Amino acid sequence: MLELTGLTAGYHGGTVLHGLDLSVPAGTVHAVVGHNGAGKTTLVHTVAGLMRPGSGTVRLDGRDVTGQPAHRTARAGIGLVPQGRRVFANLSVAEHLRLSYRPPRRGDTTRPSVWTPARVLELLPRLGERRNNRGTDLSGGEQQMLALARALLGSPSVLLLDEPTEGLAPALVRQVHELVTTLADEGIAVLLVSPSPAQAAECAHTLTVLTSGRVGLRLDGAEARTDPTALHAALELAPTPA
Ligand SMILES: Nc1ncnc2c1ncn2[C@@H]1O[C@H](COP(=O)(O)OP(=O)(O)OP(=O)(O)O)[C@@H](O)[C@H]1O
Q: Domain ABC transporter spans what residues (predicted)?
């Protein structure tokens, strides 16, 4: 369970997140949508420990991890799939997997499941076929799978996915959402940042519309799927033609 309370963050004295409350129970997907500049990446970076919050708390299964640096939050069980994937150009898929593998400490029973490179390749067989290819030789979809694989190899309790479907073809977008659902079914708490409310609603249990760093709207995923009117209104989108 990821719990954010009163989270405030920003840059150079300016505030981007204004006292955000948000929770992601284990085994669920909480999607955060919002326009460019709403603060979605700032939120992810603050939770992952890449930025320090001005105030508020970040709790992982009840443990306070607020303001801890990224290597500590990763060790505590927060996995990050960053926007833009950030795979290493000159490392092969196999090298990425080997270097990213961080089994939980002995006796740590908090993780929903333990991910080894072999298990990750069962979930993402395409990476096995490309195991000797370098980062730059991979397609966008393959790079996205590799970024996800790297995060899974820390056996996370929480996964932060920052626009994982950016630039992917519709069939791959569906595949990413199916993977997200599979991972939540495993017991992982997934925070999914998406620029597309329709895509996010496909797999989210809960949706938050972030509006200038505040909760503009929060609604149930099933509600958003059956009647997206409120979601569209919060994002000031034109209704989709019937
Ligand atoms: N490194 C930075 N230094 C200063 N301001 C920043 C920095 N990164 C982001 N900002 C500003 O913070 C605000 C929120 O940006 P953020 O990247 O969190 O938004 P976002 O919702 O993720 O948008 P996008 O969909 O474009 O990625 C924007 O006004 C942005 O210009």
A: 2-237
pLDDT for res 43: 98
Pocket test for ligand 1, best of 8, 12, 16, 50 (most atoms within 8 A of CB): 16
* Model ipTM over 0.85: yes
**Tens-place pLDDT, residues 129-162:** 999 999 889 998 899 999 999 999 999 999 999 9
- pLDDT tens for 162-175 read 999 888 888 888 88
Residues in contact with ligand 1 (CB, 6 Å cut-off) = 11, 16, 34, 36-42, 195
C-beta atoms surrounding 236 within 10 Å = 9
DSSP string, 10-77: EETTEEEEEEEEEEE-TT-EEEEE--TTSSHHHHHHHHHTSS--SEEEEEETTEE-TT--HHHHHHHT
The closest residue, in CA terms, to atom 11 on ligand 1 is 37
12 CA to centre of ligand 1 in angstroms? 12
